[in-house]
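Researcher: Good morning. I'm working through a list of sequences from a screen, and I'd like to move beyond sequence-only analysis. For each chain I'm collecting a predicted structure so we can compare shapes side by side. This is the next one on the list. No need for commentary yet; just the structure.
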Amino acid sequence: MNRTDAGRTSAGRDGVVLATRTPERARALAEALRQRRLRLILSPLRAPRALTEPELDALASALDGGPWEAATFTSVNGLRGLRTGLARLHAAGRSVHAEPVALLAGTQVHCVGRATAEEARAQGLTPAAETAAGEEEQSARGLLTRLGRAGAPGSVLCVHGRPHRPELADGLRELGAEVTEAVAYAMADWPAPEPLGGQAPGGAGEERPVESAAPALDRQATAEVLHERAADVVLVTSPRQLEALHFLGPLPEPVVCLGSTTAARARELGLAAVTAVSPAPEDLAEAALRARSG
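Model: Good morning. Structure tokens for this chain:
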């Protein structure tokens, strides 16, 4: 979106929420905000992309180390990335497994957050454990706490993207587990050149048949909106997204953060924060309403 479009977006600024979400995953959030008289504009900043061929080679090498007693997924993207990567490897004759449900047969699946668990179920997996709202804000730390209480599995496949936070894999090693890390996707500037596929029918965040009608801003337009103070609330879902927005311009406070880690980073940056209890659209919209109410 160019400068003219950004200026048009900032008109009628009352009740505007700027969220770091891609258009295909924003329709339900836009509707939840609309019901609360809030209007959504998007600043995706970054989006998940499929693996390059060298990255796919690395994934194949990691998956050769199975079977595992357990597998962990910290996001929907990890599940979709693994599904996409396996399909490509299977099509090339490099994997006997075409789907995660086959690769992980007999493996306990552990998920961070409700949305991740929903995607796992949509792919035919049965999560043995998932962190829930109020449990370390659905974080990797919450999953580690659960696994520590139950006794760490002997071998674990940790599926994540690039870049990623090392707390889960490192924490599992400290608990005595033998950990294999598998990078299943990577983040790229939005719009991603090779967008990540792999979504299962009925998977988490599925918003077919239409995308959100909310405008999507590039970085320049996002900076203009922030400097013009055209957004009443900013909603971020990761520390990196928060840092990127903070670099682009002044943020309205309190910032709506998904998870305790993001909220802690906001406070480190000197920003007041409101923490959403889950990534569900209704919970994000309620947090945005609280933030706007002061």
